[in-house]
Write a structure and sequence with these properties.
- The protein is mainly β and about 170 residues long.
- The chain is built from no helices and 15 strands.
- Helix content is about 0%, strand content about 30%.
- Strands 1-2-3 form a three-stranded antiparallel sheet, with no helix packed on it.
- A hairpin with a 5-residue loop joins strand 1 and strand 2.
Length: about 170
């Protein structure tokens, strides 16, 4: 006869009596829940848990004695993870005004941004893939406001002034 008796330990004790009445005992040892698990009852071995979550993934649930580790991919373009074994993904950076995206984000790397130089290029919007070319003033204009990394140059039309006068730049 096979009988199951719970014990005060974390495992179950199974006893079986033979024809002579001798009791044979067998302990079911638990898997350690860190490097081993077993998700099926009555197995005679533990399975190895998968290694820590890779780059571009986060640990949604850690391993236990009855379940393997669950790694979930970060969301492309929104989150990334550039470290191993993490339990969350990181938010992807935003390229702000005055810069452009120089390298797109992946699940395993952040977006990289490069500053516009403010001389030949600028960017007045966030999340830009390129810088804009700075306006070049025409022959009949002069630069009233110089370009910056976040703003275009402002040109002003030259006034033709008579002898003894000069253009002040004001209207």
């Amino acid at each position: 006869d096979l009988h199951s008796f719970p014990t005060r330990r974390s495992s179950d004790l199974w006893t079986k009596t033979d024809d002579s009445g001798a009791v044979l005992e067998r302990y079911c040892e638990p898997c350690d829940g860190t490097t081993q698990y077993q998700d099926k009852a009555m197995e005679t071995y533990c399975l190895n848990t998968q290694p820590e979550c890779k780059y571009g993934f986060f640990e949604q649930s850690p391993p236990s004695s009855s379940a393997d580790r669950v790694c979930t991919p970060c969301t492309q373009g929104t989150t990334f993870q550039d470290e191993l074994g993490q339990d969350t993904c990181k938010a992807v950076s935003t390229c702000l005004k005055g810069s452009r995206e120089s390298k797109a984000p992946t699940r395993a790397s952040d977006r990289q941004c490069q500053a516009c130089d403010g001389v030949s290029e600028y960017q007045d919007a966030d999340l830009a893939l390129s810088c804009k070319s700075v306006t070049k003033c025409s022959e009949n204009e002069f630069v009233q406001v110089e370009a910056t990394p976040t703003s275009d140059a402002q040109c002003h039309e030259m006034q033709v002034c008579g002898a003894g006068h000069h253009d002040t730049g004001e209207r």
